[in-house]
Amino acid sequence: MPRKPVRKKSAARSPKRSPKRTHRKRRYLGIAALLLLAAFAVYLGYLNHLINSRFDGGAWALPSRVYARALEIYPQRTLTREQLIYELELSSYPRVSSRPLPGEYRLLGESLEFNSRAFEFGDQAQDSRRVQVFFNAGKVSALSDSRSGNDISIFRLPPFMLGSYYPDNGEDRLLLAEDEVPQRLIDALIAVEDRAFFEHSGVSPLAIMRALLANLKAGKAVQGGSTLTQQLAKNLFLTPRKSLLRKINEAFMAILLELRFSKRAIITAYINEVFLLQQNRIAIHGFERASRMLFRRSIDRLEAQQLALLVGMVQGPSRYNPFNAPEAAMTRRNLVLKIMFEQGLLDEAHKQRASAAALGVVRQLPGVNRFPAYLDLVKHQLQTSYSSDELSHRGLRVFTAFDPMAQQNLELGLARGLRRFDQPRLQAAVVIADYLNGDILALAGDRVSDYPGFNRALMAQRPIGSLIKPLLLYSLLQDRLTLASKVRDETIRIKQSDGKVWEPRNYDRKSHGEMSLYQAFVRSYNLPFIWLGIDGGLEALAQNLGRIKLLKHDVVYPSMLLGTTAMSTYEVAQMFQVIANNGYFTPLTTIRSVSDQNNRTLKRIPLDSHKLFDQGRMIQVQRAMIGVTEHGTARYLAKRFDGRTLAGKTGTTSEARDSWFAGFSNRLLGVVWLGRDDNAPINLSGSSGALRVWADVMELQGFESFKLTRDDSLAWRYIDPVNGAISQQKCANSVLLPVPKDRIPTARSRCK
User: Fold this and answer.
1) How far apart are CA 722 and CA 747, in angstroms?
2) Is residue 37 domain-resident?
3) 303 included as an active-site residue
4) Tens of pLDDT along 691-704?
5) Overall average pLDDT of the 154-160 stretch
6) Residue in 466, 475, 485, 734 annotated catalytic
7) What residues does 662 pair with on adjacent strands?
8) CATH number reported for the structural domain that contains residue 410 in this entry
């Protein structure tokens, strides 16, 4: 058979790539690379934006601090050693036995020596100073400079911080500037947390590898590889949740931080940012605040063992908390001391002493905002000038009129007064003020004064009862009446607009016939004031309430004459301020000045006192209020404080639901309210309830007799309080009253 020809297979040839296709592929790769670079640039830009927003725009929201008044100490000032100790300990001055360092005090026989902290007042900077104070008979007898031995005429003790307005994140910190950070803190922190801090550029590959090997060897996470810069980036910008993305962000942000800022700036930021302690709902960040909380000292004054405890807590604030885990805290502290010794930061003897020392922390952390009612009023009064956001972020320094000793006396007197009633649900509100300059010195909005709940002194609106009568009396004196004018205490029936008949009564449900206006006021009878009120007094009362911005309704009702108008204790205090101050209105305030965090004064509250009412008529009202305390509804005060003159007015509302007393001495005004939150009867009148508490508070405050001002428009005459006629000093029932010179009574009374 013929063989078929075999065809040889030709070798396969790869097709040639077209130059066009190759160019297109390279272009796509280039575009992809550019897009990746652009995305990376955007990513870095975003991270950089986060850094800018914190560091350039203010790295932290700083709470505003509220300070009490500064205690002025001078010879002959009424001040006991115990009172000075109370103020020093409020400011966290520990008692020592040796020569006191700044922020400490010691007792020397009957004298006391303290070393004040440096402080930036709104008007001047005051350096630290060691002062010895001598006492005698409840007063300062002398004070001297302990270093020079020279006498001091007056010294201002820096005020204690009574509270703060915290940001929404609940963080509290005290910032240190770069030049304020102690070098030994930096050295200890670097020795324990990041020994290569000054060599790396934000990320340490060697540390990461070392941590990885340690963790693989242990079979679990026992060591971290993050630098201090990475920790700062995480704390400032990232969440604590562990993830690969977070670690990548952390690394790049650390590198950006190192490119943008100096090592000193970064370590300072870390020292200010790190979380160390929890105080109730407030997170304590930064070494300075934690140092003051735990040791009552600034970070620059800590001993080696105290510094080591704080540095050790960085690794686990909860795990090494000296209150909850003292043994773990001690072990960690001593490990830090060992590292400090190995790094040449301590010698052997110093390390041994420090390791043997106790933890030395305070017995318990101070409460958050110990005086919540006063702080609440401060914030309320600041709202006209500063928003809540500014108060919780700008680090303002608010200087107030708060008097710690007046507050202590208020709290002790209130507790003592409430014990006598044995009513656990009885609530209270108290305001103590200087009616001449308008300073609110102390405040309670609850029977438990440090309870941060409903502030009754500011928020609770309750009918004021007969507390309206002093201003009503003034309104009646405008209409040709005098304290000697005859009035009638007779029943009255008033038909109201809804057709119902209103028939007011006296507290004792009786009518007492004719008497002087003075007598009706002192006995707090209702009916005479109703008769006079519907004859023009009501309109005048409404007008006068409007002058002090306490008229609550556009339509006035006759029942206003009996104090159905509801007011807060604070508002009542404002009404009585103008009465006590001879008709001069001075707005009651807590605030004296406001400074920014750089101690520049932003706002100063000037003394604003202007005449609203006639002085002569107001003096007549004051004299009638003295009569109330001498032989009227508040005559209890005359017995308790025999020989001292006080002016005041009781108030009781329908069914004894509210008990009020407002009274004043020389400069000091006090208002007390008692009642229940459910508005149930408390079975206490103004005389049997609030008056007794007021007396307990004022006795502890200490006071001087109230003195009436001389006024040339008035003549003083002895008057028969029953018929209002001219009497004689020797007459048993006569009272010395001021009357306008053009309205002196002509009738004369027979002496009894």
Assistant:
1) 13
2) no
3) no
4) 999 999 999 999 99
5) 95
6) 466
7) 649, 671
8) 3.40.710.10
Same-domain status, 604 and 556: no
Query: Would you tell me how many other CB atoms lie within 10 Å of the CB of residue 113?
Result: 18
Q: What would the mean pLDDT of 615-635 be, rounded to a whole number?
A: 97
- Identify whether 350 is part of a domain: yes
The CA angle 435-669-481, to the nearest 5 degrees, is 80
Percent pLDDT > 70 in the chain is 87
Domain edge (last residue) among 158, 187, 214: 158
End-of-domain residue from the set 158, 186, 204: 158
pLDDT at 355 (0 to 100): 95
pLDDT digits (tens, 9 = 90+) for 292-333: 999 988 899 899 999 999 999 999 999 999 999 999 999 999
Torsion-angle region of residue 722: left (phi > 0), alpha (psi -120 to 50) or beta? alpha
CATH number of the domain bearing residue 126: 3.30.2060.10
Across the chain, mean pLDDT equals: 88
Judge whether 264 and 225 are in contact, CB under 8 Å. no
Please list, in sequence order, all residues whose beta carbon lies within 8 angstroms of the beta carbon of residue 210, skipping any fewer than 6 positions away.
223, 225
Cα separation, 151 vs 712, in Å, equals 45
CB distance 292 to 276 below 8 Å: no
CB 263 within 8 A of CB 178: no
Query: Active site residue: 87, 104, 113, 193, which one?
Result: 193
> How far is residue 578 from each of residues 509, 523, 573, 719, measured CA to CA in Å?
32, 23, 9, 27
Look up residue 599 and give its amino acid: N
Q: How confident is the model at residue 209 (pLDDT cuts 50, 70, 90)?
A: low
pLDDT at 223 (0 to 100): 46
Range of the structural domain that residue 77 is part of: 70-158
Closest CA relative to residue 360, chosen from 333, 396, 393, 394:
333
550 three-state secondary structure: coil
Entry pTM:
0.85
Average pLDDT over residues 469-498: 91
Residue 305 lies in a domain: yes
Q: How many domains does the chain have?
A: 5
The first and second tokens of residue 281, run together, are: 């709902």
Known catalytic residue at 288: no
Q: Is residue 54 part of a domain?
A: no
Q: Six-digit token pair at 567?
A: 């007011």
